[in-house]
Structure to design on (349 residues):
């Protein structure tokens, strides 16, 4: 009982200290651009964090308004450029959308590089300092966090039994590295926005598309596709950053508070990746364990040892070499020092 009383007293003291610290924060209001508004990361994590968690943790001293870029007439690639010009203060976008600005943005999510959430997270954390350095130089932005969508997989409106059956198919891809994988499998990559995929698949403009297991379910891809290949071919990591001038004008106490709290947001999203990935599979295939999405009746394609071996071979022989050829020597060297040991690959420049 004494130990319990001591523990409760300590907890009370910590709560008081946290409250006192929150009261010391100057009134601050953030204007935040979030990720894709219809998907789970925004709905379950970003929006409640900025509209509820921050005000609660700061006792009302730090507040925020957040709107997803999809509701602002933006497509994602322009977020960092608008941040550089000061139009956007805080913003989130998908790293793959920025690959045209610099191939370094593909470094942690090369198609097929990691096929489980733990490895994807480890690779991301290892390479993160490189993004902060490049974004400071190129976009005048500070990286505050990087988190991920659920596993990105193949949805097909055609009978497929494995990766080999992507040959001859027209496939919607969301990044250059995904397109290179589809080409290596003998398919034809097609670039189109996320919102265009349902009618395109319905009208056979494309046969397949790559997106998150849960993301595709929320967007009703299951209504226009019949087969799901659950082998993750990428993840769709997002970067959350702040304009450096905005950050410099922010009170140091608020900066420390935000950095600490955003790390909790980052951990929360990553912790949910495995559950959301499996939940998307369960929902698309109509399992009783489906929690967040719509139960559908897609056929789950069993991932074979041959599929995994094929993907690994293509990563080593096609995906990494092509990426290394277009990224700078510094980029490749830093990748080899951080990501390479985790995935067991050394890129050559």
């Amino acid at each position: 009982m004494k130990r319990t009383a001591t523990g409760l007293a300590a907890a009370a003291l910590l709560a008081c200290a946290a409250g006192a610290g929150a009261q010391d924060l100057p009134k601050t209001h953030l204007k935040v651009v979030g990720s894709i508004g219809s998907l789970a990361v925004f709905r379950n994590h970003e929006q409640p964090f900025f509209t509820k968690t921050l005000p609660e943790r700061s006792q009302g001293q730090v507040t925020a308004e957040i709107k997803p870029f999809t509701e602002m007439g933006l497509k994602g690639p322009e977020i960092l450029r608008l941040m550089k010009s000061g139009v956007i203060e805080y913003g989130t976008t998908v790293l793959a959308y920025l690959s045209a600005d610099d191939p370094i943005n593909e470094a942690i999510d090369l198609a097929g590089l990691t096929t489980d959430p733990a490895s994807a997270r480890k690779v991301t954390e290892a390479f993160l300092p490189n993004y902060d350095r490049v974004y400071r130089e190129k976009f005048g932005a500070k990286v505050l966090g990087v988190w991920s969508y659920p596993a990105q997989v193949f949805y097909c409106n055609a009978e497929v039994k494995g990766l080999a059956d992507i040959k001859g198919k027209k496939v919607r891809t969301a990044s250059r590295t995904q397109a290179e994988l589809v080409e290596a499998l003998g398919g034809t990559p097609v670039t189109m926005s996320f919102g265009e995929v349902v009618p395109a698949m319905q009208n056979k403009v494309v046969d397949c598309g790559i997106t998150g297991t849960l993301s595709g379910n929320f967007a009703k891809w299951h209504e226009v596709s019949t087969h799901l290949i659950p082998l993750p071919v990428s993840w769709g990591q997002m970067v959350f950053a702040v304009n450096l001038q905005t950050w410099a004008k922010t009170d140091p106490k608020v900066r420390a508070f935000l950095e600490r709290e955003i790390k909790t947001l980052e951990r929360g999203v990553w912790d949910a990746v495995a559950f959301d990935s499996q939940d998307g599979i369960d929902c698309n295939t109509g399992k009783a364990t489906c929690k967040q999405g719509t139960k559908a009746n897609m056929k789950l394609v069993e991932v074979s040892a041959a599929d995994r071996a094929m993907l690994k071979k293509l990563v080593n022989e096609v995906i990494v070499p092509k990426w290394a050829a277009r990224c700078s020597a510094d980029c490749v060297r830093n990748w080899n020092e951080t990501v390479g040991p985790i995935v067991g690959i050394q890129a050559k420049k």
